[in-house]
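Fill-in record for glycine dehydrogenase (aminomethyl-transferring).
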Amino acid sequence: MNTQGRKTHIDALGVEGGGAASAAAGTISGNRALMLEEPLIFEQDSPGTTGVDLPEPPAVKSRLGQVRERGRIGLPGLSEPEVIRHYTRLSQKNYAIDSGLYPLGSCTMKHNPRLNEKLARLPGFSDIHPLQPERTVQGALELIDTLAHWLKTLTGMPAVAMSPAAGAHGELCGMMSIRAAIEDRDGGTSQRRRVLVPESAHGTNPATAAACGFTVDAIPADATGRVDVEALKSKLGDDVAAIMLTNPNTCGLFERDIVEIAEAVHAAGAYFYCDGANFNAIVGRVRPADLGIDAMHINLHKTFSTPHGGGGPGSGPVVLSDALAKFVPLPYVVHGPDGFSLVESGADEDSTGKEFGRLKGFHGQMGMFVRALAYILSHGADGLRQVASDAVLNANYVMASLGDVMTPSFEGPCMHEALFDDRFLKGTGVTTLDFAKAMIDEGYHPMTMYFPLVVHGAFLIEPTETESKQSLDAFIRVMRGLAERAKSGDADHFLGAPRMTPRRRLDETGAARKPVLRWVPEVEQREAAE
């Protein structure tokens, strides 16, 4: 094992203590029982070793001109067992929803039913190509159309754009639809360039508005953690294009004045965009159309339980009101006497003539569509209603069980996530980050920290609807124990955490400012120095 090469890599990352992994683990091997120490795959390189045998290629004349191979391309040589062991050991270092409760607030990290995965792998869904002729993918187009129908039914909206690739992409779609509608209504001379965004909004909301050419005007929250309605009304004017509001909001609370807000926004000639990231808290119980919403994206991976994390794959369909239904992106599915087809341009017979253009290369994420429809059909109306009920029940159970040892940020019940702040840690010498690091040693991924920004030292906990009472009780016991330990004066326990991970606490500021993006072999470093 190349401990020296690994040590160099660890030190460069800024690990506290700077010692080799074996010293941190207290073992000769550097392993911690079944948590095996693992060097980089490049450090395990054995030139000439390979897991496959290929026949020697025949001699052919090079077609690369003067380009010649100058040396090894840098891919490591390993046998098949070494490759399998390497990636298996890496997988054991990852926390996953299949390992335990994943309390990341605002993320809805819930169990993914394996039935969804099985259906997504069916031939005809998993192996189709976006450039196939439409007549060869009629089943896939029908599935997209059927999913669109149920998304419209669940939201009460007349139209839906299926192509957005994720939630933020859906926001972009919704705001581009609003911009297109405003320009169409006002003849391209509109001065509506201001978008109102609550201070508790997801960070993508103001970023999306700015990307669409709007200026952002923040709306403060009131003492209950909801939008200050009077402050909102005072900012409305003939230059306001829209409001972007999340409901339930990022504090885990239902915006109880949402109908009044929608009426005020519409009276000012603006549109209401709703961030639907938290739709799983109200699905089957509340229809966004009944609240006065004009556009809302739905994160299929959050609401309908498709794979989440690692950058994708995601899917963010956008439902649209009558006022925006014509201003959709291309392409979209239509159903005629000859079957299903895609409207690809504004010149097509079934085009509305008002589409704002193409949002992405193809229609959307097919695997996500299959999984979402499987989830919807397997749950049914009563099951989806229970999804929302259980999400809210679990979050309130966590809040009620921790409210006496931690400090809830706002009074009263919450929706799908429980928000605490760091007032209970005052005078202990322990911060929100320290508390989170100690959770890792207890076998839990930390909750979302320091967000939303409207509360100090936030702990945003979302247990999701798929957790049992037993798993919640185990989590609550750990959180109570850590809170009591912090208050007892044992700050050192938190400042030294995590102790049981393959790596100790990083110098996170140093790692962010000077990241190590490329591993350099020890030999190469010595030769450069000489």
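KEY FINDING: The first helix runs from residue 3 to 13.
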